[in-house]
């Protein structure tokens, strides 16, 4: 097969980490396979050793297919060089080579370090369905504990749904319902997403602190506020440019120059003012939006209307509608109200963290007691094995690092 220049570069590049990025279908996996084969068979010098090569794929089928391709390439190379003992050794070692999914690769270190992970013996891998009843029971117990705690400790408030407190309000906001099964499902769905990150449920605590910090800031200095102000400034700038373009078109027509041009220039000036005020802060942006009014355009007589006049009028109307809708959506709140919302969201986030952290600890204890773990546990367990308490690489990490000369990851964007 004839390789493209980019494929040749990816196959032959050496001395650095390589990332192959392309859209679906151009042959990324094929290129990776050819690079692996070339590195193992080579030209007799500086050849890779398959036993010191780690190859991670996204699916078990892809791992099996890769082994077959490497085996076929080695067999062809041996047929051409029957006396090459190195190639024969590579083919023999291929059966035990580290070519697997990321979860399968994690399994061996996790099982070998079971004591560090709190297991009394090598854990068994359980499927998610096997532990479903355990999960639901633990989550139900945790929720019961929180209901009891907040019924005793929290001031009840009368709401449209009856008497409520922070905890019941959180569940209603989070699930949109007070149905137990919906609450369980939504909480566990969130938990399942959180534990795919090294920070796990601690991300909620991080978010709570961030929201608390933001509640002390001017809104446009928060991350959310920066997004809003950036969007508004971009909208105003684009509208201003279009108003300027419409002004040029109107200036070429004597009637429109008299009737429409001053209004269009006023519109462009309004946009420029909104940009300046938005750059000055939320309060100024809000005041400018409220106080900078549009000028009413002069209606033309029927016989004076033209395609150009209708185009200008309709375009102007659409632009001002966009500006007004954006202002009503983003500049319709008091700053104190926004700060209170940040603070309340922080409290809800911390409450959610407390709940899921409690569930996480109890669920982990129960799995250790049963001597089982799930696929979703593997990345977290692996990270615990590879890191010391202070975040430095552990001895296990050093040993693993020294076990491989080359590492290949297929479908890198999809691997946890």
Key features?
63% helix, mainly alpha, 3-stranded parallel β-sheet, two-stranded parallel ribbon, flat, 6% strand, single chain
Structure description:
The protein has 416 residues and is mainly α. Helix content is 63%, strand content 6%. It has a three-stranded parallel β-sheet with strand order 2-1-7. A two-stranded parallel ribbon has the order 3-6. β4 and β5 form a beta hairpin. About 2% of the residues have low confidence.
Task: Summarize the helices and strands and which ones pair or pack.
Blueprint: H1 5-12, H2 28-41, E1 53-57, H3 60-80, H4 85-93, E2 98-101, H5 102-112, E3 124-125, H6 132-153, E4 157-159, E5 162-164, H7 166-175, H8 180-194, H9 202-214, H10 223-251, H11 254-259, H12 261-278, H13 282-291, H14 307-330, H15 335-370, E6 372-373, H16 378-386, H17 395-401, E7 406-409
Helix pairs in contact: 1-2, 2-3, 3-4, 5-16, 6-15, 9-15, 10-12, 10-14, 12-13
Care to give the gist of this entry?
The chain is built from 17 helices and seven strands. By secondary structure, it is mostly helical.
Helical residues, percent: 55-70%
Biggest sheet overview: 3 strands, parallel
What's the β-strand tally? 7
Helical stretch tally: 17
Question: What is the overall pLDDT average?
Answer: 89
Q: Roughly how many Å is the radius of gyration?
A: 32 Å
Strand content: 5-15%
Indicate the low-confidence ranges by residue numbers.
156-163
Query: Can you write the helix and strand succession as a string?
Result: HHEHHEHEHEEHHHHHHHHHEHHE
Biggest sheet, spatial arrangement of strands: 2-1-7
Overall shape: it is flat
**What structural class is derived from the secondary structure elements?**
mainly alpha
Ends apart, CA distance between termini: 33 Å
């Amino acid at each position: 097969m004839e390789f493209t220049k980019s494929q040749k570069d990816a196959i032959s590049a050496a001395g650095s980490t390589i990332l192959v990025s392309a859209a679906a279908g151009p042959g990324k996996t094929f290129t990776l396979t050819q690079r692996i084969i070339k590195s193992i068979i080579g030209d007799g010098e500086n050849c890779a050793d398959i036993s010191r090569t780690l190859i991670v794929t996204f699916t078990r089928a892809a791992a099996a297919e890769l082994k077959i391709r490497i085996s076929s390439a080695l067999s062809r190379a041996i047929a051409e060089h029957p006396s090459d003992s190195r190639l024969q050794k590579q083919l023999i070692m291929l059966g035990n080579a580290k070519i697997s999914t990321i979860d399968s690769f994690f399994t061996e270190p996790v099982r070998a370090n079971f004591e560090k992970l709190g297991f009394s013996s090598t854990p068994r891998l359980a499927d998610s369905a096997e532990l479903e009843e355990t999960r639901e029971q633990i989550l139900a117990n945790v929720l019961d504990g929180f209901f009891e705690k907040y019924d005793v400790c929290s001031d009840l408030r009368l709401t449209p749904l009856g008497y409520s407190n922070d905890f019941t309000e959180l569940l209603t906001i989070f699930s949109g319902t007070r149905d137990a099964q919906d609450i369980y499902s939504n909480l566990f769905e969130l938990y399942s997403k959180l534990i795919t990150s090294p920070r796990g449920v601690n991300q909620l605590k991080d978010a709570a602190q961030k929201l608390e910090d933001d509640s002390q800031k001017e809104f446009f200095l928060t991350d959310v506020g920066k997004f809003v102000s950036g969007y508004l400034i971009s909208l105003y700038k684009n509208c201003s440019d279009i108003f300027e373009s419409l002004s040029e078109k109107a200036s070429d027509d004597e009637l429109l120059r008299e009737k429409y041009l001053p209004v269009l220039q006023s519109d462009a000036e309004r946009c420029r003012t909104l940009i300046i005020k938005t750059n000055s802060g939320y309060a100024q942006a809000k005041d400018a939006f409220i106080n900078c009014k549009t000028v009413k355009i002069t209606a033309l007589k029927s016989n004076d209307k033209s395609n150009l006049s209708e185009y200008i009028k309709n375009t102007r109307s659409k632009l001002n509608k966009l500006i007004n809708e954006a202002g009503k959506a983003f500049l319709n709140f008091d700053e104190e109200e926004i700060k209170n919302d940040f603070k309340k969201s922080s409290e809800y986030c911390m409450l959610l963290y407390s709940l899921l952290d409690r569930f996480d600890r109890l669920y982990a204890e129960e799995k250790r007691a049963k001597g089982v773990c799930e696929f979703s546990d593997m990345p977290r367990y692996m990270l615990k094995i590879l890191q010391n308490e202070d975040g430095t690489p552990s001895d296990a990490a050093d040993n693993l690092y020294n076990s491989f000369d080359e590492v290949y990851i297929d479908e890198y964007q999809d691997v946890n």
